[in-house]
Design goal:
Layout (H helix, E strand, L loop, with lengths): L7 H7 L40 H13 L4 E5 L2 H9 L7 E5 L4 H10 L6 E5 L4 H7 L4 E7 L11 H9 L6 E5 L4 H4 L9 E5 L13 E5 L2 H14 L5 H11 L2 H21 L5 E3 L9 H7 L6 E5 L3 H8 L6 E2 L9 E3 L11 H7 L5 E5 L5 H13 L1
Parallel strand pairs: 2-3, 2-4, 4-5, 5-6, 10-11
Antiparallel strand pairs: 1-7, 6-7, 8-9, 9-12, 11-12
Bound molecules: pyridoxal-5'-phosphate.
Length: 385
């Protein structure tokens, strides 16, 4: 129901779901079960053990695959479990390229764990095609990038990276972490990515009440290798979390419209102030990659960063928000503010933070779907204090 042929909003609500056959319940039940009764030896309904398959997880996997325009979704216990399983496609001796501003947990997993298991990696600004080209080796099997990045909101031209990789003798796989943009705003598979992944914890679930991850692909071969790894390693998404995400994506299109509109309005308002060093938002004409953003993204999502240029002032401001909650994470209906240097990016070495622009005077807003005027008033009182 609601899969091929339907537009995005319809897919949000219906893809992967059909009325439950026994009772007709319109909502997918939460199948809390570890096993399934079999009629005879080798006679079953396709479900044998719940690490391998669960009907609630099946539904959310089909839903998320349809939203990303892919044919296979594989759901995991967290965004990091999705990244981990993606990396398990590689073997000792392989090399991967990571964006220089990827999620801190992704960097930590590669740098502290996967290198012990024999993977080599290079970090580059994947927005710089020359630098990316120089980082590729004959044994490079995977390029993993985020666009826009966190919290600097810099972009990578996905089709350009695809064609660069395609020119190599044995092209590396291209995986895009689409957590920040969401499929409402950006469709990496349609632009040539082999795999797209998410922390569903953020916009897809959207209500800050579950942790999860997903990988989507249209490749039969990659999907079956990932399914094997999902079952072999077992970091599966629980039935309850699967159900919460199904509930979340029913309003993804509505939420993203508001996130996009309110973030753009607040970014413009911030840019109009005379007391800020810089405002970062791909939807602003002043963003150095605004032209690429306009080409590659439908909207610019709900994250806005700004730098006051004064660490002490930023510290005082962080304590004065009333409606924006001071917290890590992002992408929920409620607005959050975060001080990346001491919170989400505290473990990034200071020199690397400085090189990326993550200064002590930078704040990151996750603009929620509250009334825009209330959000603006909160910012106003924070600046006035
Ligand atoms: C949060 C996040 C992750 C990690 O996901 P978890 O669900 O927290 O494990 C990965 N990538 C990006 C871009 C994120 O924002």
């Amino acid at each position: 129901m609601g899969d091929a042929g339907h537009r995005f909003s319809t897919r949000c609500i219906h893809a992967g779901q059909s009325p439950e056959p026994v009772t007709g319940a319109i909502m997918t039940p939460v199948f809390f079960t570890s096993t399934y009764v079999q009629e005879g030896l080798n006679q079953h309904k396709g479900f044998e053990y719940a690490r391998t398959r669960n009907p609630t997880r099946d539904a959310v996997e089909a839903n998320l695959a349809a939203l990303e325009g892919g044919t296979h979704g594989i759901a995991f216990a967290s965004g990091m479990a999705a990244v981990q399983t993606l990396l398990q496609l590689l073997s000792a001796g392989d090399h991967l390229v990571l964006g220089d501003n990827v999620y801190g947990g992704t960097f930590r997993l590669v740098d502290k764990v996967m290198t012990r298991l024999g993977l080599a990696y290079t970090q580059v600004d994947t927005g710089d095609l020359g630098a990316l080209d120089a980082a590729l080796r004959p044994e490079t099997r995977l390029v993993l990038l985020e666009t826009p990045t966190n919290p600097m909101l810099s972009l990578t031209d996905i089709p350009a990276v695809r064609s660069l990789l395609q020119r190599k003798a044995s092209p590396a796989l291209l995986a895009v972490d689409n957590t920040f943009a969401t499929p409402f705003n950006q469709l990496p598979l349609a632009m040539g990515a082999d795999l797209v992944l998410h922390s569903t914890t953020k916009y897809l679930n959207g209500h800050s009440d579950s942790v999860g991850g997903v990988i989507v692909t249209s490749s039969e071969d990659l999907a079956s290798r990932l399914r094997f790894l999902q079952n072999a390693a077992g970091a599966i998404l629980s039935p309850m979390e699967s159900w919460l995400i199904l509930r979340g994506t029913k309003t993804l299109h509505l939420r993203m419209e508001r996130h996009n509109a309110s973030a753009l309005a607040l970014a413009r308002w911030l840019e109009g102030r005379k007391d800020l060093a810089r405002v970062f938002y791909p939807g602003l004409e002043s963003h150095p990659q605004h032209a690429l953003a306009a080409l590659q993204m439908k909207g610019f999502s709900g994250i806005v960063s700004f730098d006051t240029g004064d660490p002490e002032r930023t510290r005082r401001m962080a304590a004065r928000f009333r409606l924006f909650a001071l917290a890590e994470s992002l992408g929920g209906v409620e607005s959050l503010v975060c001080h990346p240097a001491s919170m989400t990016h505290g473990s990034v070495p200071e020199a690397q933070r400085a090189a990326l622009g993550i200064t002590d005077s930078l704040l990151r807003l996750s603009v929620g779907v509250e009334d825009l005027e209330d959000l603006r008033a909160d910012l106003e009182q924070v600046f006035q204090g």
